Here is the input.
Amino acid sequence: MKVNLKPNNVSSLTKVLAVATQNQFAVGSFTPRATKMVAPILRAAQEKKSAVIVQTSEREQERYGINLAEFSQEFYRVIQEENITIPAVLHLDHTKDFNVIAEAIEVGFTSVMIDASEQPFRKNIEITKKVVEYAHSRGVTVEAELGKIGTTDFIETDVDEELFTEPAEAKQFVEETCIDALAVSVGTSHGVYLVKDPKIDIERLMEIRALTSVPLVLHGGSGTPSELIKNAIQIPNGGISKVNIATDLEHMMIKTLNRENHVTEKEWSELPTETVTLVQNAVQNVVKEKIENFLISSDSASYYV
Here is the structure.
């Protein structure tokens, strides 16, 4: 499936995040981990009049059986059939395989993330530049990561500061790769925190902001106290402008289904429509709460007019 005509409100990462940085709010980048949960994310954003990013990743393909073409089709279907008018981005999150990135671009994703953060610094630059050249030639924006953000799923521990993003390296990385957004490691982790006192290194974040010109991204938004996130968003000259949220949505899905583990695409296809609708409503409420109290992005759609 190749998308030949995108609705006017479907945007690149650059446009959506530049406005967020300028106006000191963050755009939520929500990972539904089920194609049927794309709709409630878009509905919540429309209701709250907020820009939004819907994303999936290489990992979701492998663990949940998500198909990129079907995921993209659902994104565009909901936007067109339900008259979604808020600024929206279809983003490919953490992906290492160039072929997966190329496939996402082919089926209509407007933004991709190459994650070579586990590689040595120079190799990360080399891999990222290749993706940037390919994506930019096709009108698609690129996010990349510098530092290590944590790799386990549901349960997290403290993050070693040695893995944090170095401001000077961030400057060099952005300048050499020409990426459109930088995911930084400043204290958050993927999953939900069980540590007593999670922190975000605001001083480090301010140093990175002072040395780089691209929008900054915070991964591991689930479970992070809202005040920490707000402080990171509202640093002088624009702080974090994209926050990734996945596990909070999945926890609500599992809770609503009275399950103990994740649900695959095949399992979703076998659930009664009433059950799917019940979960969609629960997810929609979580997204609305995040937009209003976490991201400070309610009514942000007005900034894009």
